[in-house]
Amino acid sequence: xxxxxxxxxxxxxxxxxxxxxxxxxxxxxxxxxxxxxxxxxxxxxxxxxxxxxxxxxxxxxxxxxxxxxxxxxxxxxx
Length: 78
Known about the structure:
Elements: E1 27-30, E2 45-48, E3 54-57, E4 61-62, E5 65-66
Antiparallel strand pairs: 1-2, 2-3, 4-5
């Protein structure tokens, strides 16, 4: 069984802000490598903001294998 906690939406005052809107201070670190891909392919990426907060992005897996994500095409403008 996997338990997941659902958080309430953060108010704008509590959301992290990037005053310059340019990502100043963001750092990316590759973590685990390997899996079903060559060792050069990271299996996790850690994002750290200027205040030291972090989150880890991992690929979606099903039955122990990385799922391929469908391509999404966005059209901008009118």
